[in-house]
Each structure stands twice: as C-alpha cells, then as structure tokens.
Design the sequence.
C-alpha cells in the first residue's frame, strides 16, 4: 500500500515538474509509458529527463488504521485406517478471500504451500526433544515432512471481497492455507473415528496417536 | 598427507578431470570442482533430493554418490538440460509454464528427477508422479503445481505409451 501511495504521489510530483517545464496546466497532463505528456498531443517529457534535472523522490507512510480481515473456509475429506491408525487426506477444498488479487499465479502458489503445511502440521510435523533437551527430529529422516505421495491435489475456490481499509482493497493471503487446513484435517480425523468413541487426538495425528486413541476409547467402552 | 584419486567425469557433455579426495561427494565435485551451481545441497543425508542429477541417464542423489563412483561416467545437471534459456528442455519449460516452483531451491532436483521418471514412464498417472517424486521434498508449493508440471511435460513430450 505504501508503494501504491508513493507511486501516486510521485506521478503527481512528476506532473507538477512537467507542467512548469512544458508550460502546461497540471490538469492537462497524464503519466503513461514512462513519460508525462499533454493529453491528446505529442508534447511531453520522459520521467528519465525529469529525474535528470532534479531527483524525483517522495517519501510516504501508509497507515491502514486497523487490521484487514481476510477470511475463508477449508473442508477436508480424510480416511482413517482404524487397524493401523493411519490417516490419509483424500480431498481438500479451500476458499480464501484475500480481496482483489494482483497476481493470481503467485497467490495460488501461496495457498498451495500453506495448505500442504497445514495438512502436514495436522498429520506429520512435530519438533520433538528428549527429556534432556536433545533434539530428536534434527534431520529429514526423523522429522515428519510430507512428500508429494502424502498429499492430494487441492481444490481452490476464489472469492474476492475488498477491504475498505486500503485503496487496493487487498488483504493477506500468505498464511491462509496453514490457518484453515490444520483444523479442517485434524477435525476430520477425529470425526472419522468418533463413532468408536474418540473425542480428541493431539496434533500431529500420527498413526500411533490415532491408534492409541482408538484403543483407549474402545477399551473404555468394554 | 591426504591421498587423492584421479577421476574423469563427463559433465553435461564436457570432459572434466581432477585429483580428488576419495571421500569427495559428487555434489561437491559438481559444485566446487567443476564450479556449476544449479545442483543444490539441502540436507546432505539423502533425504531431500535437492541434489538430484543424472548419472549415465539415471537420477541419483549426488550427496550420496562419491565422485570416484562417477569416474568414467556421464553426469547431467540442470545446466546441461536446456540448449539455451530461450530453448528450454520440455521438463524445464513445463515447470515454468505451470509455475511448478516458488523459492526454486528444490527445482533443479525436481526437474532432474522428472526427466528420469519420464524416461522410464513417459505417461505416468498423477499417483505415479506423486510416488516417484517421493524422494524430492518441497516446502513451498505443496507439490500441486509440480505434479501439474510433470503431467504437462509428459503430455508435451508425447512418446510411446
Ligand atoms: S542434499 Fe542430497 S538428498 Fe538432500
Ligand atoms: S520451491 Fe521452495 S522448496 Fe520447492
């Protein structure tokens, strides 16, 4: 937002300088293709020339005054093998509303990566220490990091609700995936075994934890 | 005194040769002796696949191969894949087209693993792609666009089914 605002202010400054130089009214000028020109004519001056005469520089601060509110919803379909406790994500459908998006390719990439990390946090990833404080998950051989084989392709649904708090209407997207995917997957795991009496499983829902929760619930029921 | 061994390795079609310590890893040979840096080292312990190169056409994790094991053989890295930036190898082109990367650290390894996968199985299913790339980790993309890129590359390459 600060860049957007500064760019606008810089364009105004360039127009004022150009107006003096071209003896034109600021209102008749437009900035396009690296030039300030008099609308409807060939008369104009390049931004480079203007800057060569005197540095074109503005400093600005953007303060949104309040936090914007990106929102969304994630739905996960998870299958649990009750014999082994292993949970597999079959499908995940996500809506993440970041307001108007300037670069959909990058925004989708952020969502993909976040969803994967969110799923992984629910099912695999955990930093573990022994009681003396030695790290037990210091390599990829010990730390549960998902490969392509553990994840499905994702279904992304778009929604754009601009925030009134900034001129572009833009909100955050970077962490949307990790925020939504983790509880969606974790809740789906618990839901999948709730008919056995399970009400809670700590994250990450590794096969051992799921299996132990199923044993505890079914033992209790006997 | 460290004893060294002479190796002759063809890297991306160019003969290279050096006296190396027997413990030198192929990944370090390529990066430090030959001096080409596309091949990344992520873990040094055969877990992440960032260092994947082709050794006589087959993908290997170059952090787990000694330079002396590659003696008299051919190594292909990401640099040797595409004739020029304007003329990308179909797999590299597909990764670009499908945005199969974000930070790019895993990308050279992913691309080399894909080249090897498609040489063995020109028309993989999505499941086969996912299982074959299991040895290559990516933190950024969630693999979504990587898998799409591999499938697109398979499509683009045509070949026998
Ligand atoms: S650096 Fe070779 S597998 Fe990670
Ligand atoms: S693109 Fe960053 S690790 Fe794969």
Sequence:
């Amino acid at each position: 937002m600060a860049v957007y605002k500064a760019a606008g202010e810089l364009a105004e400054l360039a127009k004022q300088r150009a107006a003096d130089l071209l003896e034109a009214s600021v209102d008749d000028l437009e900035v396009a293709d690296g030039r300030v020109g008099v609308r409807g004519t060939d008369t104009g001056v390049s931004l480079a020339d203007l800057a060569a005469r005197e540095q074109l520089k503005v400093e600005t601060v953007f303060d949104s005054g309040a936090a914007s509110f990106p929102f969304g919803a994630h739905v996960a379909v998870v299958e649990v093998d009750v014999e082994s406790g292993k949970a597999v994500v079959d499908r995940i459908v996500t809506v993440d509303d970041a307001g108007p998006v300037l670069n959909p390719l990058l925004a989708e990439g952020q969502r993909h990566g976040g969803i994967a990390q969110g799923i992984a946090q629910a099912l695999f990833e955990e930093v573990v220490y022994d009681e003396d404080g030695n790290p037990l998950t210091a390599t990829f051989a010990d730390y549960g990091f998902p490969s392509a084989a553990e994840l499905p392709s994702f279904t992304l649904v778009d929604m754009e609700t601009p925030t009134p708090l900034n001129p572009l209407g833009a909100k955050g997207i970077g962490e949307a995936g990790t925020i939504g995917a983790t509880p969606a997957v974790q809740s789906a795991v618990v839901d999948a075994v709730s008919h056995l009496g399970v009400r809670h499983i700590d994250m990450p829902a590794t096969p051992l934890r799921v299996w132990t929760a199923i044993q505890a619930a079914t033992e209790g029921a006997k | 005194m460290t004893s060294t061994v002479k190796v002759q390795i063809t890297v991306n079609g160019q003969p290279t040769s050096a006296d190396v310590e027997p413990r030198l890893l192929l990944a370090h040979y390529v990066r430090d002796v030959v001096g080409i840096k596309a091949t990344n080292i992520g873990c040094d312990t055969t877990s992440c696949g960032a260092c994947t190169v082709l050794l006589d056409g087959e993908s290997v994790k170059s952090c787990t191969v000694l330079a002396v094991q590659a003696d008299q053989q051919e190594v292909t890295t990401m640099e040797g894949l595409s004739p020029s930036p304007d003329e990308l190898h179909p797999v590299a082109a597909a990764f670009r087209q499908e945005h199969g990367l974000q930070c790019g650290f895993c990308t050279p390894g992913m691309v080399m693993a894909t080249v090897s996968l498609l040489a063995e199985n020109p028309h993989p299913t999505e499941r086969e792609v996912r299982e074959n790339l299991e040895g290559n980790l990516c933190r950024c993309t969630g693999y979504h666009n990587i898998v799409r890129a591999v499938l697109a590359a398979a499509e683009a390459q045509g070949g026998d089914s």
Q: What stands out?
A: Chain B has a mean pLDDT of 95.
